[in-house]
Structure formats: structure tokens, C-alpha cells
Amino acid sequence: MLKTTVTGSLPKPAWLAQPEVLWAPWAADDPGQLEEAKHDAVRLAIRDQEEAGIDIVSDGEQSRQHFVHGILEKIEGIDFENKQRIGIRDDRYEADCPTVVSEVKRSGPIHANEVAFARAHTDHDLKFTMPGPMTIVDTLADAHYDDRPALAMAFADILNQEAREIEAAGANVIQFDEPAFNVYLDAVPTWGVEALNRAVEGVACTTAVHICYGYGIKANLDWKATLGAVWDQYEKTLPALAASNIDQVSLEFAGSRVPIEVIALLDGKKDVLVGAIDVTTLEAETPGQVAAVIRSALEHTAPERIFPCTNCGMVPLPRSVSQGKLKALAAGAALVRAEL
Ligand code: ZN
């Protein structure tokens, strides 16, 4: 019980990519060297999690430059040369986004090899993450569909093909990252959840959705400052997720102003990945702080439903900070486990 896990991304070593930045360029130009560096970084990320005591590990997203654009690079119908600077997450910040120029489709497997590599290097349960359909749509310029739900469904089909292969390659958990679910609240109960359901159709392994308030970058911190004393975004979307086909919901609680009782809106039907590590601070939590978040979550759902987790990915953090936080997460969960 109280198995610990991570949201997804972990810091990249300097020999792979520039540390502590998003969209960091790769250190190696030579494709062979880059491939080797990615593999080394995945083994290290897995080992770091195992040493910290994390139960369900990920590849730390070491093989992708960004959590959304990594998968898009291998999808037809997207022009990466033609990047447009657009406002994303309801204009919270601007990003140079590739453009959808024709029907999107997969030309072949994208992540299966990465999963097989990670699978071969750990005996722990393995999680693999992909961006969710709504978040993909929100991180792209579109010159073809002009219809966000339709584009989301097209990506959901692609994600579903990927998910089936990722499961076959040995992943135990497939997680879709949907920070956009905290932005387009009205779209979640309609096409947001519908697209997720399509993405997990026929997938037998555990499925998860991660919904957060973002990395600890300035644009997100500024946005959070505008959200008031009580963050009520989850309150509006969790009932729809309770009725979805997704098994687990990953939420942000540490250092946030989310009332923890929102967990009850999942009605005991879903596992909750309880964010007990704040990814916006440079200091590791104490095990006691982690334990306190888990204990408060326990007041709103059964212990077998709780998986202590980080609030979000940790790629922008220094490696030493990330490692300290992973250790605190495992130690905090152990404290509460001993009380059960
Ligand atoms: Zn996140």
C-alpha cells in the first residue's frame, strides 16, 4: 500500500541536454552519440528512483526534448519547420509550436523501443507518460482542422495505437498528462474525457491522467498567484473523471491551495496519485511534510487508493534537488505506511 511514483519528467544530465531549462537543446549532434546518451540517461534516471525508494518508476522522459513535442516529431501532418509563436494554456505563456498542416497520423511505432529499453533495466513497475489529447491540441498551431475536439479525437486514435504497443512492450502504467484540464474546465466533461476514453480503449494495463498547475517556471507561478485563496479547478472536472475509463488521477496538493477534500469527488472509484512534493521549490520536503499530505488524503479515500507522488515533473530542477525530493517522498510514504 501507498506505493510511491513520479509524475514523469526528471532532470536531464548535462551530457544529455542543458540542465534546468525546458525545451533544452540536446548536447550531442551525432545521432549515434545522442542515442547512447539518452540510453545512459534513462538507466541513470531509473537507478536514481530505485535508490531513492520509489516503487513505480519512469524513464524520467530522458528521450524527449519536451513532454508534448517529443511525440509530435514522429507524427505525419505536422510541420516542424513551420513553427508559430502562439499563446498556450489560454495565453498563459507563449511557445514556438509546430503547425498541423494536414490529417495527423502515425507512420509507425513511436515510443515502443523506449519502453522496451526501460523495461529491460528495471524490475520495478514501470510507468510511461504521454501528453493527453487536449494538451497536445493546446500546444500546437493548427492550419488544417480548425476544430479542437476533432483534432483531439485524431490524436486520441494515435495515442491509443501507441498505448497498445507500450503496454505490449512491458509498461505497467500508461499516464496521459493533461495540464490543459486545469485551464479549459468546460471542455473537460465534454470532449476532454471523451478523447481520453478513446485513448485507453482496449488497454488492459493501469491508465492514469495527470492534471497539474505546471512546472515551477515564472509564467506558472504568476498564473497561480491569480487563482485566489482556494483553487477550485479540480472541483469542476473530477466528477467527469470519476465517470471516465481512466484508473488513476494524479493531482497537485503539496504547497498548493487545492482543498484536499476534492479527492472525495472521485467517489472512491479511482486511485489518487497524491502530489506530496512541490516542484516549484529548491528545497526537499521533510518526510514529515510528505507524510502530513498523505495523512490528509487518507481522510478522503481508502489507503489502497493512494499513491504518493510528485506534484508535477521535475525536469527544470537541479538533479540534487530532485533526488532529495524523491527520497523525501519515499521516506514520507514509509512513515504513513507504518501507521496503517
Ligand atoms: Zn504536471
Number of domains: 1
What kind of assembly state do the chains in view correspond to?
A: single chain
Largest sheet: 7 strands, parallel
Sheet/helix structural class: alpha/beta
> What is the CATH architecture annotation?
Alpha-Beta Barrel
At the first level of CATH, what is the class? Alpha Beta
The helix/strand order is HEHEEHEHEHEHEHHEEHEH
CATH structural fold name: TIM Barrel
Integer average pLDDT: 95
The first-to-last residue Cα distance is 9 Å
Strand content: 15-25%
Strand order of the largest sheet: 1-4-6-7-8-9-10
Low-pLDDT runs: none
Strand count:
10
- Could you tell me the radius of gyration in angstroms? 19 Å
Number of helices: 10
Descriptive notes:
The protein is of the alpha/beta class and about 350 residues long. It has a single domain, classed as TIM Barrel. The protein is about 35% helix and about 20% strand. The chain contains ten helices and ten strands. The strands form two sheets. The protein has a seven-stranded parallel beta sheet. A three-stranded mixed beta sheet has the order 2-3-5. Helix 9 links the parallel strand 9 and strand 10. The N and C termini lie close together (about 10 Å). The model has no long low-confidence stretch (mean pLDDT about 95).
